[in-house]
Automatic annotation (TrEMBL):
Pfam families: PIG-L. SUPFAM superfamilies: LmbE-like. It comes from Eiseniibacteriota bacterium. It comes from the Bacteria. This is PIG-L family deacetylase. One of its GO terms (molecular function) is hydrolase activity, acting on carbon-nitrogen (but not peptide) bonds, in linear amides.
Length: 256
């Protein structure tokens, strides 16, 4: 089986500042696609708020395309929905493009943020809800037939921050984390962390956030940045205890 990965996120830089090293690694083993809901025009990091929304959207779109090239995505789509306004949209405005992407790309796994939103951003949480709805509908032959033939995603993984990791930030920034016991996969990505750093640099208007984080963590940043954790949101894990060693483990057997 050649694994296919679909990443669904709200903003330019979510794909990088979140599971960027994982996506870089997955892109070396099979096709990967990214669908980003907004152009990030509501960004406020560094000088973003002074640039103006129209100009910032254009810049961040270019940054996303550059970062996506570094991470190895085969295709990138931007929906141009309102940044920081996703929760106000009719659900189908997001769900239908997600269903279309799933049915056309036919991924084995889908990656998005944990339902807590990591930074608690409402756009993040809205996208995660819509991902769950879209994955269910994409497999339903009676739903939205005009969007393509049904496709069953093997697993949906939520990029997540373990409590032990978030504790390193307790005097710097509050992160929405999950109990370490709920984490099902933590991947050692030291072999791909340089690609993640390069993608961060591509997001020039937003990278100050990561640079400040690195200054705060100091020597701890290397381990923080090189290990990425996930919770299984949809799909069956291959082992009885619910823990797996890779995002694709067991899907190879299911596909044969």
């Amino acid at each position: 089986m050649i694994p296919r990965t679909l990443a669904l996120f709200a903003h330019p830089d979510d794909e990088t500042f979140g599971p960027g090293a994982t996506l870089a690694a997955l892109g070396e083993h099979g096709p990967s696609a990214l669908l980003c809901c907004t152009r990030g025009e509501a960004g406020s990091i560094d000088q973003s708020a002074k640039i103006g929304k129209s100009k910032l959207a254009k810049i961040r779109e270019e940054e996303l395309l550059a970062a996506s090239d570094i991470l190895g995505f085969d295709s990138v789509e931007i929906l141009n929905l309102p940044d920081s306004g996703l929760r106000w949209l009719d659900p189908e405005t997001i769900v239908l493009p997600f269903v279309r992407a799933i049915r056309s790309f036919k991924p084995h796994i889908v990656l998005t943020f944990h339902e807590n939103g990591i930074s608690r951003h409402r756009d993040h949480r809205t996208v995660t809800r819509r991902v769950g709805e879209a994955v269910t509908l994409a497999a339903d032959g009676n739903a939205f037939a005009y969007l393509g033939k049904p496709h069953q995603v093997g697993r949906v993984w939520w990029y997540s921050i373990p409590d032990s990791k978030a504790a390193q930030f307790e005097n710097y920034r509050s992160l929405a984390s999950v109990p370490d016991a709920d984490i099902q996969v933590t991947i050692d990505l030291r072999s791909h962390v340089q690609k993640k750093w390069a993608a961060v640099d591509a997001h020039a208007t937003q990278k100050l956030f990561v640079e400040n984080m690195a200054k705060f963590l100091g020597e701890r940043m290397e381990n923080y940045w090189a290990f990425e954790s996930f919770v299984l949101a949809q799909g069956e894990p291959p082992s009885t205890d619910g823990r797996v060693e890779s995002l694709y483990e067991g899907l190879e057997e299911a596909a044969t």
